[in-house]
Amino acid sequence: MSKERARRRAEREAERARQAARRAEKDARRARWRGRRERLAGLAPRPVRVARQGGVLARRRRVQNAVMVVLFLLVQAGAWLLLSGWAARLGVLVLSLLVFPVLVTVAFDRRS
């Protein structure tokens, strides 16, 4: 009886050893694959995720910025269409760039 139990125990231990060897081979294969994949992924640039603020104030600021950009572009388009000289168009661009921050501060009260 004890010889039979010893034989069954030896079979169980041999099966466990085979499963452990299979598992170790599978883990080694996964590690090699992961290493190759990481090396390959290291060659490609990673996308940068920029978190966006989601509150009411952030949404209001985005709308205000969009309004100001559209206004700036309309002024530039108007200057391009109405003025014929390059010096005048460039002057409107420089003046717009100088006045833009002041207009944003006065219109939206952004004191920083």
Describe the protein in words.
The protein has three helices and no strands. The chain is 82% helix and 0% strand. The protein starts with a helix and ends with a helix. The model has no long low-confidence stretch (mean pLDDT 90). By secondary structure, it is an all-alpha fold. The protein is rod-shaped and about 105 Å long. It has helices spanning 2-43, 56-82, 86-108.
| Helical content class | over 70%
Structural class given helices, strands, pairing? mainly alpha
Q: Poorly predicted ranges (pLDDT <50, ≥5 residues)?
A: none
Which of globular, elongated, flat, extended, rod-shaped describes the shape?
A: rod-shaped
- Would you count the extended β strands for me? 0
Kindly provide the radius of gyration, computed on alpha-carbon positions and rounded to a whole number of angstroms.
35 Å
Beta fraction: under 5%
Cα-to-Cα separation, first versus last residue:
89 Å
- Name the helix and strand elements from N-terminus to C-terminus, one letter apiece: HHH
| Count of alpha and pi helical runs | 3
**How is the biggest beta sheet arranged?**
none
Mean pLDDT: 90
List keywords for this structure.
112 residues, mainly alpha, rod-shaped
Q: Short description, anyone?
A:
By secondary structure, the chain is mostly helical. The chain contains three helices and no strands.
